[in-house]
Amino acid sequence: RPITLLVPFPPGGSADVVIRPVAAKVAEALKQPIVIDNRSGGGGNIAAQVTKQAAPDGYTLFLTNMGVMSVNPILTPDMNVDPVKDFQPITPIILFPHILVVPPDSPVRTAADLAALAKSKAGGLSFGSQGVGSGGQILGEMFKARLGVPMVHVPYRGAAPAATDIMAGRLDFLFTSYISIGEQAKAGKLRIVAIGGEKRIDAEPNVPTRAEAGFPGLDLEMWHGMVAPAGTPMPIVNRLNAEFIKATR
């Protein structure tokens, strides 16, 4: 029967964009369909709960991430999910830096411009994120703490709706993935200010890293990885591991 693959964010975000072609290749190799279930909300906790309660038979998979596995248990200890005991790891899928973006009509051209604007604006700036506990929120809070000015955090149910509001000018800045906003940036619908990671990316060679822009340490790499419910038999885990690695490569 079809395999259900839970993605904890809506369509259009980095997790969704990355996993759909990978899942299609795995489905072809396994000769059975894989149905993507975008179960957003709770910073990934809703999809995590569904996975935890599913039968450990290989027919329920979860594209989890750093937030669900390491941040959420600290921020929301009552979430009733143990990332070690409740899931069977299968394989990492992708690791990527966060990109700092602003609206297309923003006066901000550099990270220093954004810092100056935050210090000059009464009440500070607003920043969006992919949800409470997401990498976008953590980086926004780090930026806020470094500047020592008030800011307003606006959580969304994923990167795609947050990107929609940054393009419309309803947010002042956003930390997100290039996967989520690359095409919009090329179309001039938003502006990339700085890039996370140790080096510039090939797609935007003229955009500096945040270290180059004067903000070293304001960085956080996000990862997505595949898990199944705890207790899934190892022969199934090993087969899924092999096929997802092959498809991802």
Descriptive overview:
By secondary structure, the protein is α/β, with parallel strands linked by helices. The protein is built from eight helices and ten strands. The strands form two sheets. It has a five-stranded mixed sheet. Strand 6, helix 5 and strand 7 form a beta-alpha-beta unit. The mean pLDDT is 94.
Task: List key phrases describing it.
about 250 residues; five-stranded mixed β-sheet; 10 strands
Question: What's a quick, concise take on this entry?
Answer:
By secondary structure, the protein is of the alpha/beta class. It is 37% helix and 22% strand. A five-stranded mixed beta sheet has the order 2-1-3-10-4.
Secondary-structure blueprint:
Layout: E1 3-7, H1 14-30, E2 34-38, H2 45-53, E3 60-65, H3 66-75, E4 87-96, E5 99-102, H4 111-120, E6 126-129, H5 135-147, E7 152-155, H6 159-167, E8 173-176, H7 178-186, E9 191-195, E10 222-229, H8 234-248
Parallel strand pairs: 1-2, 1-3, 6-7, 6-8
Antiparallel strand pairs: 3-10, 4-10, 5-8, 5-9
Question: What sort of overall outline do the alpha carbons produce when their principal axes are compared?
Answer: elongated
Overall residue-averaged pLDDT value: 94
Strands, count: 10
Q: Gyration radius, to the nearest Å? A: 19 Å
Give the number of helices. 8
Oligomer: single chain
Regions with pLDDT < 50 over 5+ consecutive residues?
none
Strand content: 15-25%
| Range of helix content | 25-40%
How do the strands of the widest beta sheet line up side by side? 2-1-3-10-4
Order of helices and strands: EHEHEHEEHEHEHEHEEH
Characterize the largest beta sheet: strand count, sense, and whether it forms a barrel.
5 strands, mixed
Q: How far apart are the first and last residues' alpha carbons, in Å?
A: 26 Å
| Derived structural class | alpha/beta
